[in-house]
């Protein structure tokens, strides 16, 4: 089953777009595919950082 993708307008500096075009070409992706890849990667990393690990201790509670 294919998921429906939401289209939206992105305003971007011309220099940034040129760099994205070069990067996408190096990775054999379209610019849209490259942006989607980068966003998904950033979201994956953010989720990993926000998950507590077994070594994390809860903050001490104040009795004041």
Automatic annotation (TrEMBL):
Give GO terms for biological process: regulation of DNA-templated transcription
Domain (CopG-like ribbon-helix-helix): give its ranges.
17-47
Concerning InterPro entries, the annotation shows: Arc_rbn_hlx_hlx (IPR013321), RHH_5 (IPR012869), Ribbon_hlx_hlx (IPR010985)
Q: Where is this region: Disordered?
A: 43-64
One matching Pfam family, short form?
A: RHH_5
Q: Where is the signal peptide?
A: none
Instruction: Spell out the protein name for this chain.
Output: CopG-like ribbon-helix-helix domain-containing protein
Organism (species): Spirosoma endophyticum
């Amino acid at each position: 089953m294919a998921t429906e993708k939401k289209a939206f307008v992105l305003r971007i500096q011309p220099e940034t777009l040129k760099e994205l075009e070069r990067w996408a070409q190096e990775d054999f992706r379209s610019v849209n595919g490259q942006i989607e890849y980068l966003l998904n990667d950033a979201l994956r990393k953010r989720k990993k950082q926000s998950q507590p690990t077994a070594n994390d201790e809860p903050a001490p509670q104040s009795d004041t």
